[in-house]
Amino acid sequence: MLSERENIRISKFLSLILCHKPEAAGIELDENGWTDVKILIKKVNKANLTLNLEILKHIVETNSKKRFAFNETFDRIRANQGHSINVDLGYEVKSPPEVLFHGTAEKFKASILQKGILKRERHHVHLSADMDTAVKVGTRHGKPFVFEVLAGKMFSDK
Known about the structure:
- This protein is of the alpha+beta class.
- Helices cover 38% and strands 13% of the residues.
- The chain contains 6 helices and 5 strands; from the N terminus they run αβααβββααβα.
- It has helices at residues 4-20, 37-46, 53-62, 109-115, 131-139, 151-157; strands spanning 35-36, 68-70, 76-79, 100-105, 144-149.
- The mean pLDDT is 91.
């Protein structure tokens, strides 16, 4: 149906427009990050990518990081995380596990030890529930390094 390379290419473009620059595809996101699927497909196809509802469903279902979600009727889609634009995802505060992990590259270790883990232009710091996922995240930026975060203690101390 879709090669892995094309799946990644479309997924990255969707991340760009649903998390950071909706104007790059000429779409608009509502206050909760949702956009109309039919309009999205039409605009993405104008950007030299081939997209239809079947392909979009495949990308959402197979994305290992669960980056995207449909509403119940599959007529709206949004990114689940990683936004640099202002959206309210409506997530509820809940108690985290005692330990979470922050994957980064070894080259950023000294800066993080000095300044802390910063969200930068994103809304939240991304933490992983398991070491393997954190290592994969860190590998994207070079030799991986993983910080162990005492999330339970942070939550109870807030």
